[in-house]
Structure formats: C-alpha cells, structure tokens
Amino acid sequence: MRSTWGNNLQLTIFGESHGPAIGVVVDGLPIGLSVDEEAVARDMARRAPGQDPTATARREADRVRIVSGLYRGHTTGAPLCGLIENTNVRSGDYEAMQRLMRPGHADYAGYVKYRGMNDPRGGGHFSGRLTAPLVFAGALCRQALAARGIEVGAHIASIAGVEDAPMDPVGVDAQTLRALRDARFALLDPAREAAMRARVEEARLAGDSVGGSIEVAAVGVPAGLGAPFFDSLESTLAHLLFSIPAVKGVAFGDGFGLCAMRGSGANDAMRVQDGRVTCETNHNGGVTGGITNGMPVVCRVAVKPTPSIAQPQRTVDVSCMADAQIEIRGRHDPCIVPRAVPVVESAMLLALTDLLLEEETRG
Amino acid sequence: MRSTWGNNLQLTIFGESHGPAIGVVVDGLPIGLSVDEEAVARDMARRAPGQDPTATARREADRVRIVSGLYRGHTTGAPLCGLIENTNVRSGDYEAMQRLMRPGHADYAGYVKYRGMNDPRGGGHFSGRLTAPLVFAGALCRQALAARGIEVGAHIASIAGVEDAPMDPVGVDAQTLRALRDARFALLDPAREAAMRARVEEARLAGDSVGGSIEVAAVGVPAGLGAPFFDSLESTLAHLLFSIPAVKGVAFGDGFGLCAMRGSGANDAMRVQDGRVTCETNHNGGVTGGITNGMPVVCRVAVKPTPSIAQPQRTVDVSCMADAQIEIRGRHDPCIVPRAVPVVESAMLLALTDLLLEEETRG
Amino acid sequence: MRSTWGNNLQLTIFGESHGPAIGVVVDGLPIGLSVDEEAVARDMARRAPGQDPTATARREADRVRIVSGLYRGHTTGAPLCGLIENTNVRSGDYEAMQRLMRPGHADYAGYVKYRGMNDPRGGGHFSGRLTAPLVFAGALCRQALAARGIEVGAHIASIAGVEDAPMDPVGVDAQTLRALRDARFALLDPAREAAMRARVEEARLAGDSVGGSIEVAAVGVPAGLGAPFFDSLESTLAHLLFSIPAVKGVAFGDGFGLCAMRGSGANDAMRVQDGRVTCETNHNGGVTGGITNGMPVVCRVAVKPTPSIAQPQRTVDVSCMADAQIEIRGRHDPCIVPRAVPVVESAMLLALTDLLLEEETRG
Amino acid sequence: MRSTWGNNLQLTIFGESHGPAIGVVVDGLPIGLSVDEEAVARDMARRAPGQDPTATARREADRVRIVSGLYRGHTTGAPLCGLIENTNVRSGDYEAMQRLMRPGHADYAGYVKYRGMNDPRGGGHFSGRLTAPLVFAGALCRQALAARGIEVGAHIASIAGVEDAPMDPVGVDAQTLRALRDARFALLDPAREAAMRARVEEARLAGDSVGGSIEVAAVGVPAGLGAPFFDSLESTLAHLLFSIPAVKGVAFGDGFGLCAMRGSGANDAMRVQDGRVTCETNHNGGVTGGITNGMPVVCRVAVKPTPSIAQPQRTVDVSCMADAQIEIRGRHDPCIVPRAVPVVESAMLLALTDLLLEEETRG
C-alpha cells in the first residue's frame, strides 16, 4: 500500500530530506490517550546526532508539531499528523547528485523507479531522516503500550564485530529495557563501549564506515498477538524493520542459530507458574506459529555499514551512461547503529500496537 | 489484512489441515495468462512428501482444482480460486490435541488467540499443509514471470550445520536455477547430500529433528521494484517468508555478515556494461534503498527444526492448567527443509509479481 | 482491493455463472459464533427463484458447502470459505455470447476491461449469480448481529411505479423486519402485490422487463458506527450496494427528497427518552456525519429493469466491429426486485458487521 | 481503512476546522506530472466563500503549501503532502459546543464514537472545511486526467426545488464542462440563477437553509474502468461522494428514474460509429456491470439543507442528559450547494484516477 502501513494502526509517511518538511499521519491510536510531548521529544532526541552544537541545532529541527488529532492534550480519535520542518537544509551539488549514483545507496534503484524525477537532495524520500517520523509515531505507541503494561527496549548487539552481552530472552524485564533507553550508548555491558568506539574511530580515520546489529525486546506482551497467514507477528514487524534504511536482516529468538539446532533443543518446554503458562527457555523469541506466546518478544536486526564513505568509489554517471568515480563529501556517521536503536524500538512499538488493536476487534 | 496479502496481486488463503479442503483465491494475475497445469502440478509435487506409497496418495490429494478465473486455459482477469480437497484426513486423539500444547508449535499461542475455538486437528489452519496453496499461487506467478524473463530458484543452503556451496550472487543464472528446480534434493554441490541425509537420519533415530537454511535467488529482475516506505522489496518478501511456518530469520545479500563489514567492503561498485548499469559485487542482494537494482535478488531464510519430535516433552494441559508431558506420535518429517524449498521460491515469485504489477501502475 | 471488501470483516468473492463453482471467503467473523446452517439455507432460498421445478433444482445448487473456518458448528477465527457448486450449467451459444454485446449488460465494458479473455457464459463473473455468496456471508453476519440485538430487513418499495407503503423510519421494529423476511413477496402492504405482479406480467408478455426499488432498515444499531473520512456508514454500505448488479441509486433517509427541503424540516430534533438520546424524526436515515446516531438506519436502493429482454435489440458484433441485432433467448426474470431483497439486506448486514468490529478496535 | 482512501491513488486526510492545520497526503500520482499551482488555486477558490472581505481572508487561508513529493515543479513519485494552515480560527463557546448537540450535525454520533474526546470546535474533523484537501487532491488529478483527454465538470442540478436544465448524457462535451468550471454559479441554464437565489434568500431571512442537488459528468473516459466486485465505478465513486458532509444520495444515469422504466427503455442500444462502439442513449450513465462503457459518466448527488440554522431547535445536553434548546449563532451558508460543486467534481476526479491507474496494472 505504498506509503501507508498498518491494518488497525495506520501510518502514512511523507517528506524528503531537503524538502520543506517531513511528517507522518497516525490513525487508529486509542482514543483519549494523554500525550506526553516531553517524553516524545526525549525519544526524538535519541535518534538525533550527539551533543555538539550542530546536533543541538538538528534536535531543534526535529521538534514535532502536532497539527491534528490532539485536543487538550488527548488523542481525539481523528488522524494525528506530526510535522517536522526541515530547518537545516544545506545546499549542495545537486546536479552531481543527480548524475553520480552513490554505491550502496538507493540512488540508482530510485533513479530507475522514479525515472529521474525523484528529489536527489540528501537522498530525498530515501533519506534516513525519514525515520524521524517513525520514532515520533513509535513514541506515541510507547505511551499507549505502557498503559497496558508493555515495555520495549533495545541495545547495540554489536558494532564492527564487537559484541555486547546478549539479552536474557527469559529474564529480561521492564527495568532493564528502560535503563537501556536512558543510556547514551545503549549497551547491556557498558565495558564494551570503548572497544566499539575504537573500531568506529578507526574506520572514520580510514574514510570508511562500520555496521552492526541491534537486539530489541518487548516484555509484558500478552499471548495471542499475530496471525498464521499473513500477518504473523514476525511478518508484521519484519515488514516495518525492512523499511528502515540499512537493515538487511531480521531474526527472531535464536534466529539463524536455529538452523544448526535440533528440535529437542529449539522447542521451548512449557510449564504452569503462578497460574500462568510460561516457557523454561525462549529459543522462539516469544513467537510460535506467528503469534505471541506470552514470553518476551526478542528480535535481532542486521544494520549494514553506512554507505556514505569518504573513500573514492567506482560508480556510473547516468547522464551519459559512463563509468565514473565518486567522492562523497561532508560529515557522515561512520556508524549509524547507535542512532538506529530508537528506530528499531519504534518498529516494535508500532507492530505491537497494530496487532494489539487487532485483537480487540474479535467480539 | 489478516488472510489476504498483496497490493496488486492478492492472495486470500483458507483451510485447515483436517478440514474438508484448503485453498487460495488469487486476484490480479495478468489477464490472458496461459496456465500450464502440468507445470503447476510439478511444483506441487516438489512440496509433497517423497516417493513412498503414502506420498503418492498425498500427492494425489494435492492436485489443485481451479474453480474460477480460468476459461479455455487462460486467466480471465476474474479472481482465480484453487481448491485442494483433504482426502487423506486421519482421525486422531483430538481431545488430547485440544488439551496438551505441543512445544515449539502454535498450539498455545493459537489457543489463546482463538479462545480454544480453533480446529486443533493436525495444527488446523496453522498446519504446514497451508503452504500448498502458496506453492500453487507461486507456480502461477512463475509462468507470468517467465514470460518477462524472470527466473526464480532456491537451494538447501544448510541442514543441521552441513552447508551447501554458496550461490554466486553475481553470476547465478537462469539455467542454474532451473536445474535446482529439477533436482530431488536441491543442492549446488550434490556432494553435500550424503552428509546432510546422515545428520537427518541420526536425528530421526534419536526421535529428534533438525533445522537448516534455504537460499533463494531471482535473476532477470528489472531495477526499480519496491519502495522506500513501506513496501520495500525486503519488506514485501519478508512479510510472506515469515508467514511460512518454521521460518525464524530472513536476510538479504550478505545479511548478518554485513554487521562486521566496512562500507568500503559492503558497497557494490557500479559500472556500465553493454550499455547497462551493473555492479561488480552483490553484497546487497540486488536491493538498495528497498528497491531492486538489477542485480540478482538473493535472500537467505532460517528454518527451525521440526517442532514435532518423538521424544517426551514437558508441556501444559490447558484444560486443567497443570504441568504435563507430551509424546507426539505418528510420522513426522525429521527435517522439513527440502520440502520448504518450493515454498520459499513461491514467496519470492509472489512478492516479485506483486511489485512488478505495481510498477505498471505509474503511467 | 478488487475482489476483497472490508476492513474488519473481509469478503473475497470468486466464481463465474457457468464455471465449476462460486464462493466467498469470509474473514474476521467473531470467534465462536454458533452457525445455524438451516437459517443460512433459508436466506439462500429467498434469493433463489420461485417455487417451480427448476427453482427447486436451482435451490439445490445453492446449498453452501463450508470448507473451512468452522469446527464443531462454531466459527474458529480462521477464514471461512463457503462454496456453491454450479450443478445446473446449461450449454449455450457461447460463440455468439462472445461476439454480440447485450445492451444494458456488462458485456462490452467487460470485453474491453478483460480484453476478450473473460468467461462470457451466462455473464461469467458479472452474473447476478455472484450475489449468492453475498447472501451467504450476510446470513452469517445476521446471526452475529442478532446476538447483539441488531435486526435487518427489507421490503419491495416499488415495482414498475407501484409503490409499497413506506417504512416508518422512527417506529420500525425488529418484529416488522422479521415478518418481511418470512414473506414470499416482501411488502409492508400486501394489498400492493397484485398490482405489482400485474405490471410484471404485462411486461413479460411484451418480451420486456421492469425495475423497482428496495428499502432496507436496521434496528438496534448502536450510535457511533462509521467515520467522517472515508469510511462513513453511507460510504461503506453504498460501496457494497453498488457492487450488486442492476443497482443504480442509493439514498439514505429522505434521500433525494432532502434536496427540496429546508434545514428546519430536515434536521431531526433530539430529546432524552428513558435516559437515552433519541430523535423525534429520522429524515437522516439514522446517520449524521457519516456515523450512526442510534435511530433506525434506513436506505433506499434503485434497481434498474432486467437488461435481458426477449425483444430484438440493436447492438454491435465486436468480432467484426459492425452493427448487429440481438435476441436474448432463454428464461429470464422479467423483474429481479423480489430476489434482490435478501441481497440488499446482506449488504446492510455486512456493512454493519464491518463497522461494528471496527468500533471494538479502539481500546 | 479509516482516513486513507484508494487502491492505486491513495489519499490520507487529516485536520480539524479550528486546529493548527488541515491537509492531505496524496500517494500514487503519476510520476513527473507538471503541477500548475495556479490552476490548483483556482479550484480551491471555487470552494471558498464568495467575494466579501471575510471570504478573501478565508481564501488566503486556503492556500495550499506542498511540503513533499514535488521537486522542480514535477511530482517525484514520493507521497505529496498538501497543508492548509487554519489562519482564521475564531474563538467560541466551546464548552456549549461540547454539551449541546446540533440537530442534523455529527455532534451526537461523533460524541458517542469518540467518547467525548473529539475536537468540537467548528465541527472539528467533521467540518465541511475538510473538503478543501479533497478539492486540492482532485485538482492534481484533474491535471493528470486532462493529459489523458478526460474532462470533468458539474453543475447545480437543483436548489430548493428549482431545477437547472439537465445535462445531455450523450452529447455533453469537454467545452461545456470547462465552461461550467469557469462560472461563478455553475448552471447549464443561467436563467435559473435568479429563482434559485431567491429561494435561498427567502430561507436565509427565515433563519433557515435549503438543499439541492449536483450533477457531475466526465467525458473522454475510456471503456474498461471499474470492476464487478467490489470496486465498481459506482462503488468507488459513491464511497467518496458519501464522505462529503451533507451528501445523502447518489445515483447514476437515470438513477431512481430507472425504477419505473422498462428494460426496453433503460437498455442503451449500441452501434459502431467511426470504428468505435457507442450507445444511442445513456440511461446507464456510462457504466454497465460496474465498468465504464465509453459513454460520458453521469452521476447525480443529493445535498441536504445546511443543518446549521438560526432558528431555535430542540436538542439534548449530553453533559446532564437533559432536553435542551439550541440557537446556532454566527454566519452560515444558507445553501452549500454552489460551494459543493467543486467537491463533487473532485470525487469524480479522484475515483477516475484511482481506477485508471488500476487498469495500468494488468500487464
């Protein structure tokens, strides 16, 4: 459905990196939800760059203006539109942007799809900047889910091969997830930060970039969310996650690790505890048959290295269909993983909200 | 949208493993497509069990009856419904099925979602048998795509830790993919078959099962299929893949391998060859910015071990909310990976068809 | 969405008049609904032709086989597919059907849309026979709505200019609507039947046909169903009604009569009665701002005369693009209004169910 | 889909009458469409009030700011968002608005649906002001359709019982439709204007309002747009038309007049003219079997009298659930029919664009 996602909660996203504004229309939010705009701003800030002057300026730019669907601080049930003005639009060599296709970027694929009519400035509609509206929508859902006892959090699972401590798929709790959200550099084992930063700096000095992975979890999720065909929780969440630029892999529970396991090791034995059904292990990441089973939902996402690097690269000039070389100037994150953490959380928040509302449709 | 998938091509799936019939309604197929029912039957046979008597019987049962949308051997443009009667419905201890939740299966999640009203026989609507209609729909799309020069094929990338030779993401061609489709045990390096079968047999004798992975590729795919938000090729394909029972991970190109790479290694340098833009490498699996770039589309899928194992397992009896033990009787595939190969291909065929039709909407 | 309708309740319809079978997949029905198949059969019988031998035969043919979504007499929550085999397929001059476009029918429009590939036998997918699956789906919803205190009924408002007594938009009750459903010829004033039948017979003898109108009402509908944009109750219901062959007009409350009224006459004054808000009049047909207001929902539908008439008509032969004459042979209803009554009821039943489930999504 | 409409062209509407802004996201427009913003402004001006000072101010307020999807004057293929700031927000007795339900308005229905959380100021999201974004979206489609030789226009068919001359359903041409668009008071027979205005003035002096009807036509529409189930042209267009506040009836061709006709009179005889199939008459309004047949598409819409009238009315106070009286102050259009003309045109423009793009999906 192109730029609209969701069955019960619906997002419609719009905007280009260097256009007048970007934003999202969120429809289907619970009625009467009291919106804490400060909490929303905190999530927005987590996605914005670090603490240097430009960053502050940028964070200003990421203040969301809610132009509809909110009355006296509560959601009205009408579609809620959040707008973010692009205050910090830099000029640039647009002509070159339209000719030279950046390797690893959407440039060429988009040039073909949009017949050269797309806005090339800063990646246009493909820009990572478009994840800001997702974080905004996710922040609204976070408040709706919190009211239902559901907490979502994520950590940097790895950067350039340096792994963080793994999430405990059975014991992870809301407090742990909230703590990750408050951290500047979301790790379960802060001791890994130095090594990760060293790898990033090393790459930056080499005019290069690095990738990594993010692990996201949700606790307090009731059993019964999802569907066998076609809207399994995995399908719904993966659909959103793969809309995030640079995400190339999504896996649930032990994920690709399950390929080499046996059924006796992969099945999660069940037992009754305090009158509730629970599992002794969580190799399935809280989802069986596409539906939540009451265990924490755990998912891992692969983030490729930032395609914008300073090193000269071989590419093509579509204006004359000839080989060419490109050198991407300007400041670029040598690693986007830390800033992608709240975006991945948002995908989880949005997917759970959509499926939760779905459950409330069956009289 | 629950049981309906797709924007331009639409599938609506229905049926239970032991109900009267299963099937799918396929809408949006190109008009006037000449349907080769024999070719469809061959794809159906690939998903059915091996060559023993029961298998034959089952394959009989998987003959698809097209009850609409076809006239004089051509698609009419009206919705096409394919029906598969469940001729081989075995009776069983239904009462126990409704009480004892099989670990690793949808039983408990489905019991909660459907409030104990779902059909528990053979997994009901959750059964892997529901992938037969997907293979049928995929087989129709295969014929539509072949007419457009697109070929799709997959191989067993690994079983129980034994890896097949990897697909060449740049050089893979239609002939290779067709050859895989004709193979009884789809491998690029047939020499691995013995080791894989040994691991499976080993597990079977232990009353256990094994998992594995499948790699699927599409060649001849034009650049420009997909979208930045929300219907990227990855989102569209992953949505379908995660609807397949037992799939727990999906990754494109180098997938999770990209997490430890640098941008200079992950970006695919471009050049002009014979007047066409091509990439020297294909770390991105033929997709950048969510849109195909003209390179082969390559995707890897994690398949967990068959949850049905003979060994006794700890579980719960929901009828009295008490701990219990379950022993799953009857014959079960100790490894479903080989039979899942055509199902994974179907997801690729369906996703590409949906996105291809989408491109034809932009006058 | 082509052949799929609905946001919360979803129908996917398929089949051709003379193909193997027609049917519908209904998804989203309340879970655990106890289905009274006899009651369903009664609704199906109301749509089938009168009491002569062929009719009986036809009614046999309209027995619905539920092949999924039902277990031990209850809906499971999985998609429910109802199949109707086409047992009474008559052969005919198909070649002529494909050449000569019947005036007033879909023939030419469909020939262009489907590029001459559509099944022309008996109208193919355009046949009024496709309303049988709608009646089946509506009958299931009737049972779900009855459990919620909602009753739907319709009457022949006019045939060939002979008007029935109007429905009392304020006082109409469930008993009146049920009585209409039990009538062979649904009228509020049975005295009009003779005059109506006379007009029909008159037309039949002249090798001609007549049109008419149907008024449908729903009582017990809670206030709050619908939406301002875009899924108003009027939009949702009209969308379905205009899918019924021969329907050319839809109006709510006083409908076109409102064009000549003043606001003081068209506004429905409100008052509190027994602690509930009610209206003194119902010129708005129970819908204001696109949302139900608690009054009976009243809608009128225009049904054009059966386009199949015995008289010779001027048309075109698309095989040679030349003027031609056509004489439509075989038995045809000189008036389809009586048989269309349960179909119009079904549209109301389906629309209300979809919107009712929608309301249950807003936590 | 709540606030999103369309399968191939998609609109997502948002905003409240007295909120910060209203707007629409339009997705799926043809790529590279050159947007004439002046022509868009002309259509917007037609919906705005007449030529007195306030009107000018309001028209200012209805200037649309395109914040995305447009680059160098052309559509990019990315979602296009048009924003209209609410500059002219008057304060008012909001407290009373929330207590006293205006008869004929959405107040009570909306109060129940949105649990009293909706924005009551000026009707909030229910306001006729929300039709401005529809006119904006329609104006974009008008440019896309003009490039395909399709012209859409409408006239005031009647006001308070005074009828305009009828549209010639066979001979209507693009020139006639363009002329209607340029007229300040769109009539085919300007001589009726005086009588219509007199009726409106009469009602205004009596503190009352009047209704009327609008007839819209499209010429140059190719045969083959629409579908049998469920997206017939009538279903698609009626869905949008019934989203327009005050619309209570929609009819195609002879509409309700067909109820009293015979098949021999209602069928449109066909012939070949200049190698094209055409009809001698157009009783079916250019649509048969839900699909366009190449004749002008003609549709009539019933518009109820403005519910806001100065006369005191009986209503309820929901804050104490008691009977009450309401007197609606402030200036209100005693007749909204003239301003609704471009809105009805927009519905036709949007529906045709959606269905036209659909046709381009069938390879």
How would you summarize what this structure contains?
Four copies of one chain form a homotetramer. The first copy, chain A, has 363 residues and is α+β, with helices and mostly antiparallel strands. The first copy, chain A, has one domain (4-362): 4-Layer Sandwich (Chorismate synthase, AroC fold).
Summarize the helices and strands and which ones pair or pack.
The structure is a homotetramer of 363-residue chains.
Chain A: E1 4-5, E2 10-15, E3 21-27, H1 37-47, H2 53-61, E4 65-66, E5 70-71, E6 74-75, E7 80-85, H3 94-99, H4 107-113, H5 131-146, E8 151-159, E9 162-163, H6 174-182, H7 193-205, E10 212-219, H8 233-241, E11 247-252, H9 263-266, E12 270-273, E13 276-279, E14 287-288, E15 291-292, E16 297-303, E17 313-317, E18 322-326, H10 337-359
Antiparallel strand pairs in A: 1-2, 2-3, 3-7, 4-7, 5-6, 8-9, 8-10, 10-16, 11-16, 12-13, 14-15, 17-18
Helix pairs in contact in A: 1-5, 1-10, 5-10, 8-10
Descriptive report:
4 copies of one chain form a homotetramer. Chain A has 363 residues and is of the alpha+beta class. Chain A has one domain (4-362): Chorismate synthase, AroC fold (4-Layer Sandwich), CATH 3.60.150.10. In chain A, 29% of the residues lie in helices and 22% in strands. Chain A has helices spanning 37-47, 53-61, 94-99, 107-113, 131-146, 174-182, 193-205, 233-241, 263-266, 337-359, and strands at residues 4-5, 10-15, 21-27, 65-66, 70-71, 74-75, 80-85, 151-159, 162-163, 212-219, 247-252, 270-273, 276-279, 287-288, 291-292, 297-303, 313-317, 322-326. In chain A, strand 2 and strand 3 (21-27) form a beta hairpin. In chain A, helix 1 packs across helix 5 and helix 8 packs antiparallel against helix 10 (337-359). At the A-B interface, strand 1, helix 4, helix 8, strand 11 and helix 9 of A face strand 1, helix 4, helix 8, strand 11 and helix 9 of B.
